[in-house]
Every structure is written in C-alpha cells, then in structure tokens.
Amino acid sequence: DYGSHLVALFTVGIARTHRAEAIDLADAAVELFPDDQFFEGSALWYRVVAGVDVETSADEFVRRWPDHEVAGVICAMAGRADEARKAIARLEEKGDEGIHYDKARIYAALGEKNEALRFLEKALDETPRILLQLNSDPELDFLRGEQRFKDLIERSGIPLGELAYLSE
To answer: Cα–Cα distance between 155 and 21 in angstroms, integer?
Structure first.
C-alpha cells in the first residue's frame, strides 16, 4: 500500500549506505503509483545523490519541477552552479517560510560552507522545526565536522547521539 512504500522509501533513503536500495524502492513505488509526484521526484533525487544518471535525472527533475526548492540542490549537486544560484534568487522572490533552510541546502551543495552555515543559523532562529532534517540531508554532510554545525545541532536540541546513524 501507499503508506508502506512511503515509510520504506524514507527509512532506506536516509541511510547513507543504502542508496541503490532507495532507488529500487522509489522505482517500484513509481510503478505502483505512476502519477505520484513524490515518488517520481524521489526516484530522481536518489539517483542524483547516488551519482547514478546524474545529468539525465537532474534534467528531468528541473524540467518537471523547476520551482521546487530541491531543484536548486539537484542543480548544485549536478555541477550546475548558475542554475542553482537562479534557484536561490527564486527562493528569495518567494520569501516563504523555510527559505533559509532551502538556501542553506543549495549553498551546501555548491560547497559554500560559510553561506550554508549562515543560512542554517537563520533557519534555526526562524523555523526550528525545519532543522529536524539536519542529520539526513546528504548535501550537508561536508558541514558535519564544522564546529558551527555542531553548535547548531546542540542549539536545536536534536539528539545527535540517537541520530548519528543517519550520517553513516
């Protein structure tokens, strides 16, 4: 059923060592629920994160959901810095809640550590609940050793010890 596929995909998808399985689960979910945009987008996302068919997957994601906040992250991960920066500009125009976390994710995927951390700090101040994703978003991996990142985890109250497996 739909809920079982959703839970399985999420659970496997956040584990760093099971990217191929996440792709397989997302593909299976797309077959069962062919019009479901979440599963379709997840299949493309996990391919980019795993380094599988990156260009094709990025092209398809951006074609289908050009204004989705994840499009900027995918563009950055695919080496499309200009497109990622355009996504940041679109986020600034929208000004929705969660904009700082989304911008932090894109800056992190671009490898811009200071900007990523700056926007993560803003996100914590404005919408702390969004930071529940801190331990699962793979584009933030290169920040995990930074003291500012560790301070954010501590300030957020997220029990890092219990969630450390997410960064494996």
So the answer is: 33
Euclidean distance between the first and the last CA atom of the chain, given in angstroms as a whole number: 29
Can you list the alpha helix ranges (DSSP code H) found in 51-98? 54-64, 69-77, 81-94
CB–CB of 94/103 below 8 Å? no
> Residue written as tokens 């497996």?
165
Torsion from C-alpha of 13, 19, 21, 23, nearest 10 degrees: 80
State what percent of residues in the chain have pLDDT above 90.
41
Output the pLDDT for position 21: 84
Closest CA to 48 of 25, 79, 17: 79
pTM of the model: 0.85
pLDDT band at 28 (very low <50, low <70, confident <90, very high): confident
